[in-house]
Structures are given as structure tokens and as C-alpha cells.
Amino acid sequence: MTDPGGGRAASIPLLGRDPEPTVFELSQPGRRAWSFRTTGVPEWPAEELVGEEDLAAAVPLPELCERDLVGHFTRLTHRQYSVDLGAYPLGSCTMKYNPKVCDDVADLVGLSQVHPAAPARLTQGWMALLAHLDGQLCAITGMAATSLQPPAGAAGELTGLLLMRAWHRDQGRAPTKVLIPDSAHGTNPASVTLGGYRTVTLPSDRRGCVDLDALRRELDGDVAGIMLTNPNTLGLFEEDIAEIAELVHGVGGLVYYDGANLNAILGVTRPGDMGFDIVHLNLHKTFAVPHGGGGPGAGPVAVTEQLAPYLPGPRPVAGADGAYVWDTPRRSIGRVHSWHGNALALARAYAYISANGGDGLRRVAEGAVLNANWLRRRLHGIYDIPYDRPNMHEFVASTTSLKKSDGLRAVDVAKRLLEEGFHAPTVYFPLIVDEALMIEPTETETLQTLEALAQALERIASSPAGAREAPRTTPVGRVDEARAARTLVPTWDTRPADG
Amino acid sequence: MGHFVPHTDDEIAEMLAFVGLSSIDDLFAAVPAALQLVPSSRAGGSARHLDLDDGLSEPDVLAAARRLAAANITGDDLVCFAGGGAYDHEVPAAVPRLAFRSEFVTAYTPYQPEVAQGVLQALFEYQTMIARLTGVAVANASLYDGASACVEAVNLAVAAAGRSLVWVSQGVNPAWRATMRTFAAGTGHDLVELPLAGGTTALPAGGDPAAVLVQYPNYLGCLEDLGAARAAADRAGAMLLVAFDPVAAGLLRSPGSQGADVVVGEGQPFGTPLSFGGPYLGLFACRQEHVRRLPGRLVGETVDVVGRKAYVTTLRTREQDIRREKASSNVCTNQTLIAICCAVDLAWLGTSGLRELALRCARGTRYTKEALLAIDGVEPLAARPVVREFAVRLPVAADVVVDRMAEEGFLAGVTLDEEYDGGGLLVAVTERRTRAEIDSYVAAMEKVVR
């Protein structure tokens, strides 16, 4: 049996600076926090419930009193940056503030305590909420119908590609390639492969947008579709989007919208107006569902009328009498989730959209784009701005010149910024910009916060000495990632003997 | 109401002047006019605009959500005997109080480990506890749900074997199998279902699959013979993939100790309420030799520049943002917060609590099963031993029974499709069910099947 713990550690408040012992080291055999209901059910011993050949000894887990359990996880939170603590100018991730009313909605007993297999007539409130959200997302994207099942953006992408596949099959076609710009997120080509297609990378032109000539060269009957983010990952609007859509449609392909950057165009324009056929949304970016340290998110997929019969099912739809029923579309690709998607995340997005309304969402886009343009202009002359023209919700800066003059790399700026009390921007992405710093301030940061961020970035650029040693004020210093991969310790039980 | 954007009118004017624009609409000059919407407030009804209801104040949002919530039947209204992959377990007070602290809830993916040690260490502890439960060496930092964990297990096995035939037991949750079929349309994997015979999987003697996937206990609650499944896999040189029930694991030998290569499951029972099906938690663990094919994120222990213990996401070269089209999985955002809920709950349970939880489920299940089977016309759907869930055949159609039982105050169970010996009812009994509740449930059942 594995040692369940060590019982060597004490529980002392450390305010984030000193290492927190693992929960295993805080364990003392015989201690407990658990407490179960008194049931009156006969107390048969394990041997009378499970046959000898299947019965095992108890699994070793940490044994703590509730007081130490609470102390431990509370101290861990003191070693963690978050949106509620400060600004997160993380490009492409849309780390906006998450309004607390959405948490209250997700906590409602009438939403959180509902079994997903309960009969439809007992879950009409949930089904109405999902149907309303479907309608809101259709209005925002200019699409006809939505599947709320995909639990994350990448799951939405793959769902979209499978919709593409099913559509072509019914057209009697079997194209093999999907076009993706070189500035795309990594999930796009990974999803293309899992969707059974081949990625063909399109170069960007000098302006940072899709190179139309390169696109034309790739267009033939073998094109299943194109995946685009608009605005793209440089924060630039693809002005030729209508022409791109027309060209791809011209060879029988479909046009896919990666919704990662939808925040920039809420209420301003819609993917449907631009000619897109399939849209996935990241509710954890655009619609303020908190990121949870890396999920749960939600990645609904919205489609045009012609693709609606292929959506995953079952979906909640209103019947003739106004009651909601579960319906699986006629040509559905099938399920993409165990149940109905990340329902409580969907409820948060519903609350956020309802709070904003149409005008409010447009103000979100205006704020996001204004903040990003202000910050780009503010950093002009301090960092390189490779595509220095009006941007949308984010922009890409670079330390190419500072690297030449002072050895300052993008990663050093990122780590120095942590010392300054800000989260780092996205670095080394998109791949087409050298020493990239991809900055998305979002609409929820004030002008004063933006100025403080700009001043921090200015200080870093003007006194680059010591940047390679940063961060020095964080709970730990620069982490040895190479060692983590070389000497893999993925669990407390696999740590080296002297650990 | 748009009250989430902080700028005053003066600030907006100042910022526009700074960037050299005269109006807020100029921000969108790059968007061709033909594609632009008119702001709703200026649309005057007919012009193309974002057609949504007006924004609501905070109390009105909450009131609207409360109205919808009131139209659902919850565990407070109906005593829950439904399972089938979503279970009505106790969520201890400590779980939401800790896991829903805003430092965890509003953090991003830990790409900057120096300011993300809280999430990273919690995930490291989660991975350790899941590895112990599954009995294999390495667990990842979570996948979306039970279904996605099955999909990724098959992807791993097919990539390792270089052949695409996979045997999938009919004892695997039907929704998970349906999801696997959906994604197989893209990967081209050839999923062949193995029927159940008398409640457990009928394993073929010959064949050349890359993997065999069984559920333990299976969808009908029956214990599969993992030794036989391992032997069948060995005959074909295939991997054994096991979808396990992490609660029953408090009593049962781990899948890893019985030869599983990959162990997956649904982690909702540990600290996550029913939530209408999500967000839940995909558990994924494998033997050490498959770690380089592990989907999703993995946290490892290391040190910082001055030798202090630190955690970081590792073996990053497997992942989509680096491997792009060559990545074996596209997973990026996963279910970190739910994994933290799970870690807090498992630590709250501890060694003795998990055992006690599993025991209490097994006792309630036995008590309920014996009483239900004493009713005239109620028969077991499968004769094999069960732990925390069981299937019965009823003299009345199961969906009718569920409807009638709702009138009596019970969510009676999950209806089983025709594929399971003509259908029936799947009944789950958690540690929350008292003897009085079970007795009333059985009495009501006696009435409705009469």
C-alpha cells in the first residue's frame, strides 16, 4: 500500500511566500473531516457486499481535520494570481472581469441541483434557459441554430469540422483539406486532424491578413473549408472577409469562424453577415464565464439554416404547446457531450448577455477596442509594433529591437511584468511575429489601470538590466521547466526518494 | 445596461483623442460598412442591428434566472434514485467554500507558473489522488467529462497500436458510446460493440483490436471480469481501457491492479452537484509507458532558480499549441476548477471516508434492490453482483413508471433503452438515501407498477 501521507508537516499561515506542504504531508492517519447523514440502512460489512475476488483494501488518501484542509487550500490561493486580483492582458484569452451576479445565478438550487436525466416536463426551466441562450447566440452571430453541447472551444472546433464533414458527405463530396492562416491558434490544426482533414497553411500578407493570392492558389474542389478568426490573432480585422467567403463558397467549401476574438465585434458586425457558415463561441472568453484556472468553459457551435439539420442532439426546442422537448436534428452528427454541455457555464453566459442586452454588448466591444488602441498608441516608440495601424480588441508588440540593443526578450518582459503586479501578456504567439507580446487589455480595465500597465512596461523597457532574473517577488522564481520534463514527477508518489 | 465597462464619458473622449479618432464608431473603420450593424439604440426598429432584449439590472437578471430555476424539479422536490453517470452525492460545505474562492475561479490556465502555484499544486495533488484511485501511475489534469475521457483513451490506444479497430463493451454508458461514435467519424476509428450476455461483456476469442474498452462496474451496475478482459486484450496484443466508477473504487480492486493500461471515468461524484449534467470532470490516467501520449495538461514537480519546490505544466510538447496538426489531442481548456473540487472532496473524505462512502452506497443499494425485487413483477435485468447501481425489469414501461413516481415524490431512476434486454429502469442509491426514503420509494413503486 502506498504511504497515505507523512504527518510531518504543521499548518502555519505563510502568506504565499514560503512553500505550502502538500496535502499528503499534512496527513495524520486516523484524522478525519468527513461526516455522513444518519440513514438507518443496515450496516452490512464490506465482505457481505462485495465478493472476495473483487474487494480491496481502502485507497490511501490524505487524512486531515477540516481545519487543516481549509488552511491548506486557502494558503494555496495566496500563491495564485487571478482576475479578481488584478489585470490579465493575456492576448487571445479575453480575461475580462466576471460579474458576480453570474455566480449567484449558477448557484441557484433550481439550476445546480437538477439531474440531467430527469424527464423533460420536470426540467422546463433549464430547457427554456438553454433555448433562450441559443436564441441570443444566434442573434449575436447572425446564425440560425446553435448546439450548446461542446464543453470548450477546441470541442466546438472539432464539432464544427464534423458538421463540415457531414455536409460534404451529403453533397456527395469528399474534400480533404482545410485552409488555416499561419496566425491561427494551435487548436485549429489539431482539430482539423481529428476531424479527418489535412491542414493547408495560408501565409499572411504584409498587412497581417489572409494573402488573397495565396488563398486563390489553394482553391480547388478539394477544399472542405477555411477556418478563420476575425479579427485575427494580430488583432486586425480581415477587411476582405466577404470576398474570402465568396471565393471559398465558390469551390464548394464552408467558412468556419473561430470565436476566440468575438469580443471585438459584439453588436458591430456578425459572422453571419460576413459569410461564415459555422461559428464556435468561447463563452469563457466573450461572455464572462470565469476561466477556473483552465476551465470549465463552454464552446457552443452556431450554424446557418442549411447546416442546422446536422447539429449535435438532443437540443431543447419549443413544441406546439409551448412546452420544451428534446429533439435530435434529422441528420445529426450525434452527441459531443455526456449530457447537455457545461450547463452551469451556459447559465452564467445567459445571465451576462441578459444583463448587457444589445446596446450593452456593443459597449463591451467599443470598450475592448478602445482600450487596446489606447494601449498600442501609448506603447508606440517603446516597443516595436510590427503592424502599427488601428487594431481591434488586441495588438501584438515585439521586443525585437530591445533584444538587439539590450538582450531583452519577450519572456523577460513577461516575467518582469509579474513583479510589477500584472499578469503577463501572451508571448511568442502568433508564431509569425518574432519575440511577440500579444496584449488584450479587455473592456473591464479602467484607464488608470491601463496607464499603470503602460508605465510598468515602460520601466521594463527602459531598465532591462536584471530582467533575466525576474520574477523575484513572486511565490517562486523562474521555474525549471526542462527539469520537470526530464525528471518527470507527476504525482507525490513518484517524487525522488529524497523528496 | 452595459455597466461592465468602466469608462466615463470624459475618459472616452480623452482616449479617443489620444488615439486620433473623433468618434467611437471610428474604432470600427476597418469593418466594411456593408457588414456593420446599427447600434440598437439608433436602429429605429427596421435597420439591421443586434436584436436582443434590453439589458437588465442585476436584481432583474437574478429574478429572471430565479423564475427559470423555479420551473425545474430539484433534489429538494424529488428524492433522487437516478444515476447513470450523474449521482446525487453529498457535497461537503468545505468544497464550494474552498474551490470557489475567487483566486481559483477567476485564474487563467497556469501558463505563468510563478504566479500560478496555487492552481498547479492543487492539480498535482488531484493527479496524485486520481492515480491512487485508478491504480496506474499517471493522471492528467482533467478532461471534459466521462465521454471525452473515453474518446481520448481510444485515440491514445489507436495511435500507439497503429491500427484502428476498437472493441467497445455495450456495458459502457450509452451516451459515452454515442459520443465516441460521433468523433470516430473524423478519426476513422472502427468501433465495434461487444454485446452484454447476462449482464457482462461477451469477449470474442479472436480478432485484432487496438484496444478493448469495458466499464467497471458497467452501466447496469454489474462487475465485469477485468481479468478476462485483460486476457482477451492480451490475445490480440491490445490495450485494456477501463471506464471505472471512482466511488465504487472505495471498495473494489483498482483497474490498474487488474491490468488496465488506461483508466478513465466521470469525476462528478466527488464534490460536484448534479448541475443538469455539467460542468463535470473527465478522469484520465494511464500507465507510465504511455505518458507521452497522454491527452490534455499534466502538472509536474520541479524547482525554481534558487531550488525551491515548484510546480509547472510539463511535457508541453505533446500539446496542440506546440504540435499543431501533429498533436494527438486538441484539448486546451479543460475542467481545472472541477478537478480542484474533486481534490478538496477527496481530501475531505480521506482513506476512511472514501471507504465509508462506498460502503454506504453499497449498503443502500443492497437494501433497495432486495426490497424492490420482492415486489411482484419486478425482476433483475442482470443476475451479476452489483455495488452501487442496479437494473430492473418492470411490469410497466419504465418511462411511465418514472412519470408516476415523480407524482409520488421520487426521481425513480434512469430509463434503459431497448438495447438492454428490452429496456428497464436503472436505480442508483447514494449515501444520502435514508432507510425511510428507501422504504417510501419501494412502497410507491409497489403502487405504480401494480
Short note summarizing the structure:
The complex is a heterodimer of chains A (499) and B (450). Chain A has helices at residues 66-77, 100-106, 109-112, 124-141, 153-170, 187-194, 212-218, 241-250, 271-274, 343-379, 400-406, 410-419, 447-462, 481-486; strands at 145-147, 177-181, 198-202, 223-228, 254-259, 278-281, 301-303, 315-318, 324-327, 395-398, 426-427, 436-439. Chain A is of the alpha/beta class.
Question: What do you see in this structure?
Answer:
The complex is a heterodimer of chains A (499) and B (450). Chain A is 33% helix and 10% strand. With 499 residues, chain A is an alpha/beta fold. In chain A, the strands form three sheets. In chain A, strands 1-7-6-5-4-2-3 form a seven-stranded mixed beta sheet, sandwiched between helices. A three-stranded antiparallel beta sheet of chain A has the order 10-12-11, covered by helices on one side. In chain A, strands 8-9 form a two-stranded antiparallel ribbon. The longest helix of chain A is centred in the last third of the chain and has 37 residues, at 343-379. In chain A, a hairpin with an 8-residue loop joins β11 (426-427) and β12 (436-439). Chain A is globular and about 75 Å long. Chain B is α/β, with parallel strands linked by helices and 450 residues long. Chain B has helices at 9-19, 58-70, 94-99, 102-105, 117-134, 146-161, 174-187, 226-236, 320-323, 336-373, 398-407, 435-448; strands spanning 79-80, 138-139, 165-169, 190-194, 196-197, 200-201, 211-216, 239-244, 262-266, 282-286, 299-303, 309-313, 379-380, 389-393, 410-411, 414-416, 424-428. Chain B has a seven-stranded mixed beta sheet. The model of chain B has no long low-confidence stretch (mean pLDDT 95). The chains are: A alpha/beta (499), B alpha/beta (450).
